[in-house]
Give the backbone structure.
Amino acid sequence: HCRSIVFKFFAPLHINVLDAKGRIGYPHARVIASNFQIVTGEDLLHMYYIQVPPDLSKREDPTNAAFSFCSRCGVHILHAPSSRSNYLDVN
């Protein structure tokens, strides 16, 4: 990771680290979105979105998930699992 993007988040002293499911697994911590802040490098943060089908989002209607990565080195930074979620998965 090139350290071009610096972020901080407020969390309990001990946090659970989860493994992502899917083709590319990565360890991440789930945090409340309002507790996450980008300190530097916001201009290097690139986003892409996917539509999550209703059967995967456990809802009747589809939702959108957002993914972000560093445009300099390509490292995955964070993921918003749903446009209706108050949580972020931080890598």
Observations:
- The radius of gyration is 14 Å.
- The longest strand covers residues 45-52.
- The CA atoms of residues 12 and 31 lie 10 Å apart.
- The mean pLDDT is 84.
